Amino acid sequence: EESFQQRLLREFQDYYKNNLDKKTSHNNDMCSLLPNPTPSTLSLWSHFLPHILDSSKHSHDWHEYEFHDFTARLLSILTPDRLNRGVKTLPLDWTPFQRSLTILHKRWTAIQKEVDSFRKKNNLSPTDPIDPKTIEKLQNSIPNAPRKLNILIMGGSVTMGVVCHLNPVTTQTGKYSRRACAWPGRLNTFFPYLFGYYDLVNIDSLALGGTNTESGRTIWDYSILPDEIPYPDILINGYATNDMHYNSVQDAIKRNVTLEQSVFELSQSFIRQVLTPKKGCGHPPPLLLYLDDYMGNEQNEIRETMISSRVIHELSGYYGIGSISYADVVRDIVYGDTREWWFSSNWYEKGDYERAVHPHMGMHISTVWVVGYYLLNLMTTYCSLPRDGNRPNSIVGKSLEKYEY
């Protein structure tokens, strides 16, 4: 006799199969690609776990999938309900996210048109697979193709991928080092694999060791993004670990303020800089998201350790921005066993307990899922909201429609 859990899973799968081809009444946006009514993020994630595992392979590990078992073990630990703990706050204004979905839908429609034409020309059914290289060629052949969604991730050495190569599988990791191994780089392959090789999203990482939110504020204030990085539609602040770093503590002491006061002031200033439209820029403010990834041991007291988490949650609630917490997803695992090093640093690497803030490969693989789960949650939430025309009700309404994107 099947268990309650098995019955729920079977009923969901039956429902999903029966409703997969039923679109919403809004066929001009990404929401129309989801079953109607919109499934929950948790149910969608659970349903596609095998596909998520397959999409999590590194681009240099495509054929062998050397880290398959390690990745599968991580995914079995980070269950959908655990990932759900990483969803902290949603944006108060959905307008920037609606713009993002519009960008995605324009590009998806253009690619799908080419794919449909190829299927028809070659007498292929909708379920016949198409080689990834063929899909890549079809995308590159589209004249005046709609642009990708631009996501910019700003952060320090953790975001850059320092010691990301350390793992329990192999020491032969030259091809996985640093930026190619870090979670922003992995997102650049995770999304295309997940979307059936449709290249819809461009991920840029502006990460430099030793930088924190103060550095990010200066970069944004003076518009000194590198020329190759386009203006972002979504901006993720990934400075949480460096905001808690020893150097940030010393800076606070020099200014005669507490670390919490320093983190609060810098974060609030950064948020205000990003949310304030720049004169002559021609772009609306991006969708701003904060990521709390701090799982270091810079502090040894609960309240001190939770400073970053507390500040991010408080300011996100006040300013109505989105926030994600990798820390809340794995905190009990890491602090429950300080010798654990899959989701954090190895605090006993040389035998004795020591200060260490750079997590290893497991954290970067896991952060891909934490961020991916959050973005999927934004979509399922948005698509479930009551509709007013073609968009959910928004405080700013149509005030930002003058911007072109």
Key phrases:
405 residues; alpha/beta; 6-stranded mixed β-sheet; two-stranded antiparallel ribbon; 17 helices; disordered C terminus
Protein described:
46% of the residues lie in helices and 9% in strands. It is built from 17 helices and 8 strands. The chain starts with a helix and ends in a 13-residue tail after the last strand.
Q: TL;DR of this structure?
A:
The chain is of the alpha/beta class and 405 residues long.
Topology:
Layout: H1 4-19, H2 41-47, H3 49-55, H4 68-77, H5 80-83, E1 87-89, H6 95-121, H7 132-140, E2 149-155, H8 157-160, H9 183-194, E3 201-207, H10 213-221, E4 234-238, H11 240-243, H12 246-254, H13 259-275, E5 287-292, H14 302-305, H15 307-319, E6 322-325, H16 326-336, H17 361-384, E7 387-388, E8 391-392
Parallel strand pairs: 2-3, 2-4, 4-5, 5-6
Antiparallel strand pairs: 1-6, 7-8
Helix pairs in contact: 3-9, 9-17, 10-13, 13-15
Order of helices and strands: HHHHHEHHEHHEHEHHHEHHEHHEE
Average pLDDT for all residues: 89
Poorly predicted regions: 21-26, 389-405
What's the arrangement of strands in the largest beta sheet?
A: 1-6-5-4-2-3
> How many whole angstroms does the radius of gyration measure?
22 Å
Strand coverage percent:
5-15%
Span between termini: 55 Å
Shape assignment: globular
Largest sheet: 6 strands, mixed
Decide which structural class fits the backbone. alpha/beta
The overall strand count is 8
**In DSSP terms, counting alpha (H) and pi (I) runs of 4 or more, how many helices?**
17
Helicity level: 40-55%
